Amino acid sequence: MKTVLKSTLKAALGMTVLCASSAALAAGAVIVHPSNNMDVDQQALESIFLGKVTALENGTVLLPVVPPEGDETRVDFETDLLNKSRQQMKAHWAQLLFTSSGTPPVQLKDRAQVIKMVSENPSLIGYVDVADIDGSVRVLHRF
Predict the structure, then answer these.
(1) How many Å from the N-terminal Cα to the C-terminal Cα in the chain?
(2) Nearest one of 103, 99, 131, 134 to 118, comparing CA atoms
(3) 14 in a domain, yes or no?
(4) Looking at the 3D structure of the chain, how many domains does it have?
(5) What is the extent of the structural domain holding 91?
(6) C-alpha pair distances (Å), 66 with each of 61, 103, 109, 111, 115
(7) Domain membership flag for residue 23
(8) pLDDT of the chain along its 143 residues, tens only?
(9) What is the CATH number of the domain that holds 65?
(10) What separation in angstroms does the CA of 118 have from each of 14, 41, 71, 104?
(11) Does the residue 7 lie in any domain?
(12) What's the predicted TM-score (pTM) here?
């Protein structure tokens, strides 16, 4: 009985460590150009990435760029930060495009391209996995 209990506890501990590691690896971050010193809250980020605003109150223009559809960080961002499923996102953009009320973020080929583009253009804002970040961009918000 003790052996079974020990084995069960070891398995549970292993799964806990594995889940915690996976969660840590999946952590994402919203990034901006290093010269961009803006500070925004989650609500402002939602407005930016849902196409509700294209500039901040101070006039700073922001153009969102995103990883490709299906990218794990994109899925996490849309569900965790925007509280929307992939289908809800598609419906959101279809409605805005139909009514000419907004344009979806530019979809790039991968997270490396998101970092490269954001590091080269102060008007861009994007998100990537924290593990992908180098010194060429500034982390604005973690999710």
Answers:
(1) 42
(2) 134
(3) no
(4) 1
(5) 28-142
(6) 17, 13, 9, 8, 10
(7) no
(8) 555 444 444 444 444 444 444 444 559 999 999 999 999 999 999 999 999 999 988 888 999 999 999 999 999 999 999 999 999 999 999 999 999 999 999 999 999 999 999 999 999 999 999 999 999 999 999 99
(9) 3.40.190.10
(10) 38, 19, 18, 17
(11) no
(12) 0.80
Report, in angstroms and rounded to the nearest whole number, the Rg of the chain calculated over CA atoms: 19
- Classify residue 137: in a domain, yes or no: yes
How does DSSP assign the chain, residue by residue? -HHHHHHHHHHHHHHHHHHHHHHHHT-EEEEE-TT------HHHHHHHHTTS-SB-TT--B-EEEEPPTT-HHHHHIIIIIS---HHHHHHHHHHHHHTT---PPEEPSSHHHHHHHHHH-TTEEEEEEGGG--TTSEEEEE-
